[in-house]
Amino acid sequence: MPVATRLGPAELAEFVRSSARVVEDHAPALDLLASVPDDLPIPGTDPSIDGPGATEPEAVPLDGRPSSASSVASPGVGTQLAVSLGDVASRLDGASDLAAAADVLEATRPAGGHGGFDAVVQALGTALRNADSVDAARVAIGLELAAEALAPADDGSHPGGFAAVVAATAAGALGSLDRGGSLLDVLVAAADDGLEELERGPVLDPELAERGAVDAGAAGYLLFVDTAAAWVGGDPLPSPPAEPAGWTAPMPGGARRFVVACSVEPRGENHLEASDWLESVWHELGDLVRFERSAAHWDVEVATSLPGAAIEALCEIGRPRDLRIDLAPDGPTGDHVTS
C-alpha cells in the first residue's frame, strides 16, 4: 500500500477497523499491565464495596486514571480501548461521506469504553467537521482539541499518564505540521513525542515508579497512534502479542513479568559504548532474550518486571521503533543472543 496523504470516508472506516483489531489483539496484555495486585479489590467485582449486583467495571474517567476504589490502576483498560474502537468501527460502516463520519466520531460516548480515549475520538470528529478529507492539518488539530478536552481533568501530577501523553502527541503533531509535514510525518512525530512522555511516568510518577510500569491506557493510546502511522505509511501493522494462555501468574509481591522488544535507532556516534550500556542496564532489570547489533539499528528484547525502567533506558540512548510490551511466557524466555 502506498503512503497516503489524505483519507476519505472509506479509507477512514478501513483504518479504524484495522486499528480496532490491533488493539483487541493487545488488549489482554494491556489489561494485565494495568491490573491491580491480587490483594486489592477490583471495582465492580466485590459486593461489599460496590453493592449488590455490581458486576461490570466502570469506564475509565476522562483523565485516564482509575476511580478512588483503586489506587493502582483500572482493570480492563485494554479491553475498554478495544470496546471503544470496535463500536466506532461498526458505526463508521454506515457513514456515506466524511460529514457522516464526523457525526459518528463526535457521538462517541463512554459506555464500557475508555473515557479518555472516547474524548480523543470525539475531538477528532470535531476536527473533521466540514472537512473534505482527513489530512495532516485535521489530525493535528484533532489531537490539539483532545489535549484541551482532557486538560481540565489533569492535575499535572501524573507525568506519563493518559492526558500527558495525549498532550505530547498533540505538540508533536502541531510541530510537524508547522514544519510542513505530511500526514505520515504528523503521525510519526505524534508517536515519537508521545513515547517520550510515556517513559517519563515510571521515573516521575510515584505510583507508576512503585509498580515499575508505564501507564497502560496511555500505552494503548500510543498503540493506536503507531497503528495509524503504519497504516498511512503502508507498513505492517503492529503484530499481535503471544497468546496469554499459560503465561505466568504474578510474582511474589504482585510484580508481573513482561517482555519489552523493539528495534532501536541509536543516537550519537559512539554506538558501541551506548549498546554496551543498554545491555548492562537491561541485564540488571531482567533476563536478556535478544540483543542483535547492526550498523543502522539494534533488535533487542528483555523479560523484566520493570518494563517502564527498560523503556526509559531505551530512550536514553536511541529511538525505539515497533515497541512491544507483552506478558512474559512461563518458563525460559529463550536464548540470550548478542551480536
Architecture blueprint of SSEs:
Elements: H1 9-33, H2 47-50, H3 77-92, H4 98-106, H5 115-127, H6 136-150, H7 162-178, H8 183-198, H9 201-204, H10 206-211, H11 216-233, E1 258-266, H12 271-285, E2 286-293, E3 298-304, H13 307-317, E4 318-327, E5 337-338
Parallel strand pairs: 2-5
Antiparallel strand pairs: 1-3, 1-4, 2-3
Which range does the strand content fall in? 5-15%
Q: Report the strand count.
A: 5
Question: What does the overall shape look like?
Answer: globular
Are there runs of 5+ residues with pLDDT below 50, and where? 36-75, 243-254, 331-339
Number of domains: 2
Please tell me about this protein's structure.
With 339 residues, the protein is α+β, with helices and mostly antiparallel strands. 50% of the residues lie in helices and 11% in strands. The protein has helices at 9-33, 47-50, 77-92, 98-106, 115-127, 136-150, 162-178, 183-198, 201-204, 206-211, 216-233, 271-285, 307-317; strands at residues 258-266, 286-293, 298-304, 318-327, 337-338. β2 (286-293) and β3 form a beta hairpin. The longest helix is centred in the N-terminal third of the chain and has 25 residues, at 9-33. It starts with 8 loop residues before the first helix and ends with a strand. The relative contact order is 0.12.
